[in-house]
Batch of 2 targets.
Target 1
Amino acid sequence: MREEVQAFLSSRQDLVYFLRNQPVWYRRLSREPYALKEFEEASKVFYGQTFPQRVDRFQNQLNMVNMMLALVTQLKN
């Protein structure tokens, strides 16, 4: 693997962990070091950091709060 790719990975421990979980990226980055942007996007999907995933997570939390409020109002009556 090229030194600049290794330097980039050493600055981001989350990407190192993703690389260890997905060894196909190690091979791909060794052959295509310019694929770092795609690598970062794949790691964001893996960690759930894309915008749609964040919206879904927020919506799930909001639904949980609504259910808790409904439960409290039912218990109050």
Target 2
Amino acid sequence: MENRGFKKQQNGEITFQLEALEIALLTSMIEQIISLLTPVKNSENSDPLAQMVGIDQTAQKPDDDVVLRLLPDAYQDDKEASNEFRRFTERSLRELKIKRAQFVLENLPEPDKIISIKPKDLESWLTVLNDVRLALGTRVGISEVEDEENITGEEEIDHAKDIYSWLTWLQSNLLEEMNS
């Protein structure tokens, strides 16, 4: 494949193409994000008004590190305020992240085919790539560029680091083209 990365067109759309392995990898990772963010149905949230306006009476700080990275505490030093903020925002944030992930998943190109992303859809692509990168980084212990350089050893970790680097490049390339 000659044309690597995203390329901005005169009409504002951004084109790119991926190989079959890259599409399979992104598909799997996006599906995992959707699975992690899909809330468990809870009948305790029975207040109809709360449900209607998106308040989750049972929202709690996630136990899973990846979910916590994707849905972080709003206030690091105030647990009560953070929990209250989470009650009012987590449901809609989960729904938005899932909606964007499903959109990107449905619009991944066929292998080696060029896809055009409309300007209105760029934010979805960028945020989903970021969520996938953050999730992988959290699972393997990468939170900063320096961490990425220092984590080596097991073959599985080395593969994850390569994927993380590729996701970082992909996200960076998209952002550069969006701003060009």
